[in-house]
Amino acid sequence: MRITSYPDLIARFENPIEHTCDMKEGMVFIAKGGDRPVGFCDSAWDSVLPFVKELASGGGNFYDGWMKNPGSAMISCNDGFRPVSFLLEAV
After folding, report:
1. Angle ∠(37,15,19) on CA atoms, nearest 5
2. Are 55 and 90 in contact (CB under 8 A)?
3. Disulfide check for 54: which of 28, 59, 84, 88 has CB 3.0–4.6 Å away?
């Protein structure tokens, strides 16, 4: 997992909020049967869920060979101010 932040966009466009993202680099989650792991951000889960389900059912090879490992996907959450990128892998 990698977290990016765009302070200039936050300052210019985001309303001040107290609680944003609980994700920390290096966190690892295991999704059993497509269920959201405890502690995984709800919004980020919505972004990765279709890929998690596909990998969990034995699928992969997204977009005709996009990833070197066809049993994986690199997906980011949809927070434009502080996107978090997740490496999803079938285990």
Report:
1. 35
2. yes
3. 59
**Tokens describing residue 65:** 């060979």
Question: 3-class DSSP state for residue 33?
Answer: coil
Rounded (10°) CA dihedral 60, 22, 80, 86? -20
**What count of Cα atoms within 13 Å lies in the side-chain half-sphere of residue 7?**
0
Q: Return per-residue pLDDT of the chain as tens, 91 residues.
A: 888 999 999 999 999 888 888 888 889 999 987 789 998 988 899 999 999 999 999 999 999 999 999 999 999 998 999 999 999 999 8
